[in-house]
Amino acid sequence: MQSLIEGIDYYLSPEGRVVFTEKYHLDKGYCCGNGCRHCPYDFEGVPEPRRSELIESRNEANSSS
Question: Is the separation of the CB atoms in 21 and 11 below 8 Å?
């Protein structure tokens, strides 16, 4: 397994959490179902109703920017 590169595969949130980037998820190749912030797979592995909540939240964030 390759080493992860900060700023490319992940970054640290202001709270000190590791946040994986969209690139990391695309390289992984599937949705893990954890509701990751940068999931490029429309949260397909996340069970309802959480999946719909995440999609709505992302859509609201994108429309306000």
Answer: yes
